[in-house]
Amino acid sequence: MSQRDGRGMIRQLKALGVVLIIAAGIYAVATHRQTQTYTVAVAGVVTFHDAAVYTLEGRPGTVTVSFIADGAAEVGDLLLAGVGSPTWGYRAAPAASGCWSVRAESRIEGAWIDANIGELGGRPGVDIHIRIPKSDAFTNSVRSSDQVLGLNLCLDSAGKVVSAD
User: Fold this and answer.
1) Most exposed among 45, 69, 105, 109, judged by the fewest C-beta atoms under 10 Å?
2) pLDDT digits (tens, 9 = 90+) for 106-162
3) pTM, rounded to two decimals
4) Three-class DSSP labels, 47-88
5) Which residue did the predictor score with more confidence, 4 or 93?
6) What gap in Å lies between CA 98 and CA 15, rounded to an integer?
7) Is the pLDDT of residue 35 over 90?
8) Alpha carbon separation from 161 to 70, 79, 136 (Å, rounded)
9) Rounded to 10 degrees, what is the CA torsion of 69, 74, 80, 84?
10) What confidence category does residue 23 fall into, taking pLDDT thresholds of 50, 70 and 90?
């Protein structure tokens, strides 16, 4: 191999290295996921709603929600809501008598359950986590990593996690 051929090969390898570095950077940006965590401050069974204004069973007044993570809550759904800007909400559909369901990969964090509900509400690339209070009656087998077994959380009408399966 001549000296000239060797220099050409070195240039090609350098160019390939630059391309690989750029590709790795693009992949890292494209696969980076943002996480937004919301904490439940208000919860109740929806008795009436008009657009983004909800009346909840047993709560005086109304709750106005500017962002709902999983579609508008209907009468009979459990509305979980938080305060802040924007005021957010999440609807849990009835699953059984006295139980509203949240499907999520979840972890126990002290008195809270951190539910990763994923990419919902038109926010691609954003994993939405909801911190839901754990009921004193909460039951479930827990892995050593504090991961709740199962993907179905059962919430009571007060918006507290009663069980997971």
Assistant:
1) 109
2) 888 888 999 988 765 555 677 888 899 999 998 776 665 666 666 889 999 999 999
3) 0.74
4) EEEECCEEEECCCCCCEECCEECCCCCCCCCEEEECCCCCCE
5) 93
6) 64
7) no
8) 18, 13, 9
9) 60
10) very low
Q: What are the DSSP calls for the chain, one per residue? A: --HHHHHHHHHHHHHHHHHHHHHHHHHHHHH--EEEEEE--EEEEEEEEETTEEEETT-SS-EE-SEETTS---TTSEEEE--SSS-EEEEEEEEETTEEEEE-EEEEETTEEEEEEES-TT-TTEEEEEEEEEEEEEE--B-TT-BBSSSEEEE-TTS-EEEE-
Q: Which residue has 């691609």 as its token pair?
A: 124
Q: Which residues contact 134 (CB under 8 A, 6 or more apart)?
A: 108, 111, 112, 113, 160, 161
At 53, list the tokens.
């204004």
Contact 94, 76 (CB under 8 A): yes
Phi, psi of 76 (to 5 degrees): 100, -20
Cis peptide before 86 (omega within 30 of 0): yes
User: Cβ neighbours of residue 98 under 8 Å, at least 6 residues apart?
Assistant: 156, 157
